[in-house]
Amino acid sequence: MDLFEYQGKQFLAGMGVPVPAGAVADTPDQAVAAAGSVGYPVAVKAQVRVGGRGKAGGIRLVRDGAEARAAAEAILGLDIRGHLVRRLWLEAAADVAEEYYASFTVDRAERRYLGMLSARGGVDIEEVAASEPEAIARLPISPNGGLSEADARSWAEAAGLASDVHDQAAAMLVTLFGALTGGDADLVEVNPLIVTADRRLVALDAKVSLDDSARFRHPEWEEWGTAEWHDERERRARERGLNYVGLTGTVGVIGNGAGLVLSTLDVVSQAGGTPANFLDVGGGASADVIAAALEVVDGDEKVRAVLVNIFGGITRCDEVARGILDAMGRVDLRSPIVVRLDGTNAEEGRVLLADHQSDRLVSQPTMLDAAQAAVALAAGG
Amino acid sequence: MSIFVDASTRVVVQGLTGSQGRFHGLRNRAYGTQVVAGVTPGKGGQDVDGIPVFDAVADAVAQTAADTSVIFVPARMAAAAVLEAAEAGIRLVVCITEGIPVHDELRLVDRLASQFRGTRLVGPNCPGVISPGRCNVGITPGEIALAGGPVGVVSRSGTLTYQALQELTRQGLGQTTCVGIGGDPVPGTRFVDCLRAFEDDPETEAVILIGEIGGDDEERAARFIAGEMSKPVVAYVAGMTAPPGRRMGHAGAIISGSSGSASAKVEALRGAGATVVANPTELGSAMAAVLGRAQG
């Protein structure tokens, strides 16, 4: 789960990382009040989970209430690279002397942690990595070893941080690494990590991604729960406990198993169509789950046809067939459904569907046939 | 021959008294696998349909000479369960459990590599290992597999593995062993471990590799195929149309920045000389062509 900047800052502050004082606002009125409580000058920052908001006009510095209102009116509702701004974070403007970059991630390829530290902060780190790779000091960290303050201090030196902040930086780097491992984050990135005019290190931005698998031991994450969905379709799917990712096409896709669903998206594209979503009903899905999945996918206004692609292992195809018939009987589905059943109890499933074949429900023998049929229906509708 | 498991494999099911453990443990036994014990702390002395249950893996090993474990315990206990099996001297641990926190998994894999070199972990979040006709450890539906070889299968995806087994079986091509390495970011066993084992297995003549977006395991496999493998590889990679930055079902299936895309993996595998198919339903016919065998 990717956190918004303000949530990331709450997360880091809770771990002991200095962040600027601030408040959130969802309306211009709230923004004026928030700015007043923080104290001018104030930075008004769009809360979107995408980079490049500064260039897109998503950050403004304001000096009084009138400017705060104008900035809030301009930024709320802005579309930043496909992300609508619904919330603002207003924080005390910082007096910046230096801009650094610091991040910790799970390096899955090398099976350890990777820290990246640079004195060239405040810009896109992928650009720095491409143009000046030597400007980034990389530190591999053993999963069962950890990061000592002494190692962190040498690292800060190697990265070329100003010598008067080395001790401060060492302590903060250890804290940030602790936020990653102890906080069950899989990414903690601070860019820029600033040195203020009075030589204090402060996290001026925060990009934090939490490991959804660790949710069971973090009841405090509940307050950030809304960060889980990207749009209304995903919210509806999450409510029903479905593993759904929204895409932009017209062919709704439902399948069992992440790999099979990924593959189904590809086959829909090969057949000349565009997938509307990824939806994995998982192993052993009941008729109820299939019916809920159909309702969520059909609820997407762009969807013109739904492709149900099942290879039964634990999942029984007769259960899937019952779920489809149940959903069709219970709600008025807009989209025609194309079904491919294979594996456990596939024959029983096909027999159940055989009596109900129509222009609303079509069975196909293979994944490719089914994808082609669904794409044709989506184009025709 | 086969890799990792064979007819002499003796299996202990960690979590045998739970619904998943019971269902699949009995299913594995019905397939012909020697399921010799179960472990559930606090339930030692009970049995599940005649399979004795012990409190600890060490007890099960001492009493039944189990050498392989399959894990069906909940995610919050799974990493500890794997370590317990390793400490008890289990040779192969197959972890079916999905949803283990990534830091737990990373520390676990690191500890196995440094302290328990004799234990292989397959998974987590995987369908298991099947050597058709000999042994099935995990949740793969055994009836879609065909005994007798000559194809080895290794995959990050469960259902795509089933698809591949069915396509091979339809072509009359049997399988030596099918290994599901799982969809997590830090799997215990990676493609290269399996490719090396298949390369060394005299019964295996060719290998099917099924990858997906995320990480660089396919690229590493490609380097191994190019440099150290004599047997042909037929590959498929899922996720050509997946958007970057979104986790697609599996915890490990995510394109991060410019790394982990399906097209880069396909290119690497092609460059290494593997036959890469565009659709998983072509895996069987492509393998038949590679082996020069007509549909049987």
Could you please describe the fold and organization of this structure?
- The complex is a heterodimer of chains A (381) and B (296).
- Chain A has 381 residues and is α+β, with helices and mostly antiparallel strands.
- Chain A is built from twelve helices and 18 strands.
- Chain A folds into three domains: 21-92, Dna Ligase, domain 1, CATH 3.30.1490; 96-223, 2-Layer Sandwich (D-amino Acid Aminotransferase, Chain A, domain 1), CATH 3.30.470; 232-380, Succinyl-CoA synthetase domains (Rossmann fold, 3-Layer(aba) Sandwich).
- Chain A has helices at 5-14, 28-38, 65-75, 125-131, 149-158, 166-182, 232-239, 258-270, 287-298, 317-330, 346-354, 367-380, and strands spanning 22-25, 42-46, 59-62, 79-80, 83-84, 88-92, 96-107, 112-118, 136-141, 185-196, 201-203, 207-210, 243-246, 251-255, 277-280, 305-312, 337-343, 361-363.
- In chain A, the strands form five sheets. In chain A, strands 7, 8, 9, 10, 11 and 12 form a six-stranded antiparallel β-sheet that branches.
- The mean pLDDT of chain B is 95.
- Chain B folds into two domains: 10-122, NAD(P)-binding Rossmann-like Domain (Rossmann fold), CATH 3.40.50; 141-291, Rossmann fold (3-Layer(aba) Sandwich).
- In chain B, a hairpin with a 2-residue loop joins strand 3 and strand 4 (51-54).
- Chains A and B meet through helix 8 of A and helix 4 and helix 5 of B.
